[in-house]
Amino acid sequence: MVRKCTVEDRDRLTSYLKEEAVYNTFLLADIDDFGFEEPFQTVYADEDEGEIRGVYLCFYQNFLLYSKENRVNIPFLKQLFATYTPDVIMGKYETVQELKEVLQEYALDARNLYLLDHKEELEDETVEGEHAVKGCGDICRAESKDVDDIFAFLQSIDELKGLYTSRQMIADRIEKKCGVHYIIRKDGEIIAHANSAAGCEVTMMIGGVGVAPKYRKQGLGGRIVSRLCRDIFAEGKRPCLFSMQEEAHSLYKRIGFKKAGVWGTLTKPAGKKAEIPSEHEAKELPSYIPIYNQLYEDIINGIYKTGSLLPSENVLSEKYKVSRNTLRQALTILNQDGYIYKRQGKGTFVSYDSEKKQKDKIYNFLSEDALEEIVRIKPEYNFGKPTRIAQIKLELSEGEEVLASNNVYESVDGPIGQSFLQVPVKVLKENQIDPGSEEQLVKFMDKGVYCLADSCKLMAQLMEADDQVIPFLQVERGTPLLHFEQLLFDKHHRPIARIKYYFSSGKYQIECRW
């Protein structure tokens, strides 16, 4: 199961990612620097029985992933990439490679990952030397005024332009001091660049190492990288970086870096959208899908609590920056999917409950699949001989009696569902249910009998309201109703209850799972 993370997940995520910190410097740094509330960053955890098996992070149009076991949740990522198109995907090569089948149009590259353990072999940072470029300045730390020039320079370097597709990302890093950018200029133009891209407690990643083609092999790369490395060692961390160029490999080896692994990237082709294989031709997504996805995420992650009133359409439209018409379309689908429900004149409420449907294999549809909160159960019961049909279905001997009860399930606005339930009296006695206690009987009919059930048979049909349900559901004759009939069996295959359900239109979403 993949879920969106919150600040409460920070410690677990950090512990998992630190197991291979050199691969996860970006992930650890982005989580530490930007957390879980920024609009440009979203963190997901892939979990199996409570254990983290993978981490996915959307940072602007960069997508980072990590799985210690190189396990990728393909169904989730197909769904994510239907509304979010990353420019580049990065991570451990073996893990990134698993996504190639999903994003077939993307170019897969392998880059050597290097780590520096000491600074003895770092090069001189001064401009003097046999190969010094005439007229170039000293190494300077970039400021906000340099953002446009940095972005233009990085876009001019073939090896880097796919990794630095967001000008705003560079601006935010400089402004928020989340990374240091060093530049060397000649005649006002940037001719060399490197930056500390991300850092965690033990490592710091160097990125954006580039020299303009006409100024290569003149020592500029060694100078600017050495400057960054000294800064990183001063913070008590080890520098790491990646590259796929043999020329760069020689540079990094010369100043002491050693290969630590292989880094993978998937880069979107210029001018193309991601193409995700499917059984049918892909169509342009409706405009309401992104807001539907965001509201869905906010609901299941508890931003809007179960039973709470959603903000007004005006407030939601402004918050999510969509038109009211687009918002209404998203809310309609969420209503149909059972995550929200509307009360006439009162607003829209959250019906999703993460704690529901987690324990019982067989359950009461009327209690657990209602889109509105059940505030009251009104029973009308008696004890006596069953009908001939009930006697046959419940496999009762002559003279055996049953509890027969019409149970009406009400929300604050009135009846929304009804059940007619028949339980053999002997089943009540076996479970020490007091026939004289209405409280015990209602509790048993609502929950207890389902806990005893090991299997069931179910029949469903659409019917019109008749005299059997009109007094209970307070609907007009002929009103369409969904009707179930269910037989419950215990572990000895003995029938223990016969239940007829009647569901009012728009009040239930049934989820069968046995």
Describe the protein's architecture and organization.
The protein contains 16 helices and 20 strands. It has helices at residues 10-17, 25-34, 74-81, 93-97, 147-155, 167-175, 220-234, 246-254, 289-300, 313-320, 324-336, 365-368, 388-393, 425-430, 438-452, 470-473, and strands at residues 2-4, 41-48, 51-59, 62-66, 88-92, 107-115, 140-141, 181-186, 189-199, 203-211, 238-243, 258-267, 340-343, 347-350, 376-384, 402-411, 414-424, 455-464, 480-489, 495-503. Helix 3 (74-81) links the parallel strand 4 and strand 5. The longest helix has 15 residues, at 220-234. 34% of the residues are buried.
Strand-helix topology:
Layout: E1 2-4, H1 10-17, H2 25-34, E2 41-48, E3 51-59, E4 62-66, H3 74-81, E5 88-92, H4 93-97, E6 107-115, E7 140-141, H5 147-155, H6 167-175, E8 181-186, E9 189-199, E10 203-211, H7 220-234, E11 238-243, H8 246-254, E12 258-267, H9 289-300, H10 313-320, H11 324-336, E13 340-343, E14 347-350, H12 365-368, E15 376-384, H13 388-393, E16 402-411, E17 414-424, H14 425-430, H15 438-452, E18 455-464, H16 470-473, E19 480-489, E20 495-503
Parallel strand pairs: 4-5, 10-11
Antiparallel strand pairs: 1-2, 2-3, 3-4, 5-12, 6-11, 6-12, 7-8, 8-9, 9-10, 13-14, 15-16, 16-17, 17-20, 18-19, 19-20
Major sheet characteristics: 12 strands, mixed
Question: How much helix, percentage-wise, in residues?
Answer: 25-40%
- List the uncertain runs: 273-284
Q: How would you classify the helix and strand content by structural class? A: alpha+beta
Average pLDDT, all residues: 85
What is the C-alpha radius of gyration, as a whole number of Å?
32 Å
Number of helices: 16
Describe the strand arrangement of the main beta sheet, using strand numbers: 1-2-3-4-5-12-6-11-10-9-8-7
Counted beta strands? 20
Tell me the strand percentage band: 25-35%
> Overall 3D geometry?
elongated
Q: What gap, in angstroms, lies between the N and C termini?
A: 19 Å
